[in-house]
Amino acid sequence: MNKLKTIFLSLIVTLFFACNSSTVNNYDNLKAENDSLRKELEICIKIIDDLKNTPQMRLNNAQKDLLENKYSDAKLKFQELIEKYPETQEAKTAKTKLQYIDNLIRKQKEEEERKKTLGYKVLNDNNKIKVGQVQLSFSTVSISGTWTFDSYDDEYRYRDAERGTKYIVTKISISADIKEPALPPILVYKMKNGELYYIGTMGYEFVRWEDYGSYLGNTADYGNDFAHTKTIRFTTGLQVSTEDLNDNAIFVVVKKINCFNRSYRRADNPPTSYIESNCGAKSKLTLSDFDKEYVVVKVFNRNKL
Predict the structure, then answer these.
(1) Which of 52, 149, 174, 200 is the most exposed place for a label (fewest CB within 10 A)?
(2) 81 exposure class (CB count in 10 Å sphere: 0-12, 13-18, 19+)
(3) Could you read off the pLDDT of 246-294 as tens digits, one per residue?
(4) What 3-state DSSP class applies to 259?
(5) Of 140, 171, 164, whose CA–CA distance to 240 is shortest?
(6) Where are the domains of the chain?
(7) What is the C-alpha to C-alpha distance for residues 250 and 240, in angstroms, rounded to an integer?
(8) SS3 of 232, please?
């Protein structure tokens, strides 16, 4: 009896392993077949993508990268287009674009080397600057003991500089494409030990009013209202110590942000003014700040650069 039990158990164990081995073999075969099908599918998808990605589409994608200044990506796409479709018109265009990119990169490297050699001397004065929808045209940028503004008839208002200081004064015509523009800040920096340090932000005043009544706000002066006129004349001023003016190169710059907002206070004379709001002037500027964010209006004492 025991011998029969032993034989029976042995038979069950043998059948179990036989079945298990068959299952494992089937699984391995199915997995291998699935992997093969997946690879074939990937190849088919790539072929379809290549067929869909026509030379014109490839050219468009590369030119889009070029417009976004993604030069490395654009070069790779132009090169791939030339390799895959060498005889097409798109490939000819791609070759031209590659030459353009190479020349652009070369000029950028040359400009970088020039900046390293000359430093801040590469920055030129600018009397016309556009910030958003606002165009500034500077007629004068000067140093004076007096800042005059708010003229009407034969009258005008003025501020005399305190002892040991002088005013940096500008006169500007500002044009706007919109009726309620904010104005950009005009800032003053001094060069010290090869770096630019913030001195202050210039204040805005109107150059002239139609008459005494409009200066007081009793009558409208449409010549000083962008809602009625495209261009308004302003003057800006900032007191700077004579020591800084004598000992340092002084930079008058515009930051490319419109942050001086029009304000109306009936108790003031004149009631209309432009007030600074969150301009965020940097305490120290580097040469790279002038690539996009800041523009030089005028540099005094260039011989000290």
Answers:
(1) 52
(2) buried
(3) 999 999 999 999 999 999 999 999 999 999 999 999 999 998 899 889 9
(4) coil
(5) 164
(6) 1-46, 53-122, 124-304
(7) 10
(8) strand
